[in-house]
Design brief:
CATH architecture of the largest domain: 4-Layer Sandwich
CATH superfamily of the largest domain: Ribonuclease Z/Hydroxyacylglutathione hydrolase-like
Helix content: 25-40%
Strand content: 25-35%
Oligomer: single chain
Distance between the termini: 13 Å
Radius of gyration: 22 Å
Shape: globular
Strand order of the largest sheet: 6-5-4-3-2-1-16
Structural class: alpha/beta
Number of helices: 10
CATH topology of the largest domain: Metallo-beta-lactamase, Chain A
Number of domains: 2
Number of strands: 16
CATH class of the largest domain: Alpha Beta
Largest sheet: 7 strands, mixed
């Protein structure tokens, strides 16, 4: 199954000509999961490659406007386009009231069900093939970081070994690959006899707005991709601390300590018309760093 990350909004505070505000979509097979929904996200979706009608779940990190004010418009756009599938919205304490207010103050009755779930730091929700976990991070309002982590995959199938054990190609191969034992002429063949070591799925961590946060190092450990707040360059570190954000250099230090494969910097301050300075600063610490730009697309491949 393919997994792509689409960066719909990569700026912080307010929209600019160069960048809309925070929104990241992860497309996993036919499902799209949206993380944050700053104002204008519905238009960004319409300009992107992906269909907003495929969004099944929305996760909000916190309630600063540049992270959630796009929700009312997107919810009503679903309504105006005859959505029938339910929508699941997750966020810190208060998300239920926000969703209820959108519906009741907007004077419309959705044609589809909307379910809102409050998440607490340490919560973990299991879905088919993956789970989403959250922790609290160090911002100036309650804020969650999220991690999408796929299930462990079975090890590689050893066809030669299976044939030596007398298993014919076909349905029995598939059963063993799916972790089921099979009976071959009275002899039980277990998956462990024909499969290599289990293989990890993919892991994507989204920091939310945060200052450098020790617990995020452990949370993001081994991620294929870490998407991290990099609002300022290091000359503005005191300002970053004042407003609960990170510099590009600090984000790179987190990525290095967490031993992630790739770091993507986002939530770029409107002061930067060209964010090359941030990228260069981070790469001094963590070379595999990129500054996200609106409509950037990133495929996350499975490890072999």
């Amino acid at each position: 199954m393919q997994l792509y990350i689409y960066f719909l909004g990569t700026g912080g505070s307010w929209p600019t000509v160069q960048r809309n505000v925070s929104a990241v979509a992860i497309k996993r097979g036919g499902e799209i999961i949206l993380f944050d929904c700053g104002e204008g996200t519905q238009r960004q979706l319409q300009k992107s490659k992906i269909s907003y009608m495929q969004i099944k779940k929305i996760f909000i990190t916190h309630y600063h406007g540049d992270h959630f004010l796009g929700l009312p418009g997107l919810i009503q756009t679903f309504q105006l386009n005859d959505r029938e599938e339910p929508l699941y919205v997750y966020g810190p304490k208060g998300i239920g009231k926000i969703v209820s207010d959108v519906i009741h103050l907007g004077y419309f009755k959705p044609s589809y069900d909307i379910f809102a779930y409050e998440m607490k730091p340490g919560d973990e929700i299991k879905f088919e093939g993956y789970k989403i976990k959250c922790i609290d991070v160090c911002h100036n309002v309650p804020t969650l970081a999220y991690c999408l982590e796929e299930d462990i995959r079975p090890g590689r199938f050893n066809k030669k070994k299976a044939l030596e054990l007398g298993i014919p190609e076909g349905p029995l191969f598939r059963k063993l690959q799916n972790g089921e034992s099979v009976n071959m002429n009275g002899k039980i063949i277990t998956p462990e006899m024909v499969l290599g070591p289990p293989r990890p799925g993919r892991k994507v961590t989204i920091s939310g707005d945060t200052m450098p946060c020790e617990k995020l190092v452990k949370f993001a450990k081994g991620s294929d991709v870490l998407i991290h707040d990099a609002t300022f360059d290091s000359s503005l570190e005191e300002r970053a601390i004042e407003y609960g954000h990170s510099t590009a250099r600090q984000a790179a230090e987190i990525a290095k300590r967490a031993e992630v494969e790739k770091l993507i910097l986002t939530h770029i301050s409107p002061r930067y018309k060209d964010a090359k300075l941030l990228e260069e600063e981070a790469r001094e610490i963590f070379p595999n760093t990129w500054v996200a730009h609106d409509f950037m697309e990133l495929e996350v491949r499975l490890k072999k």
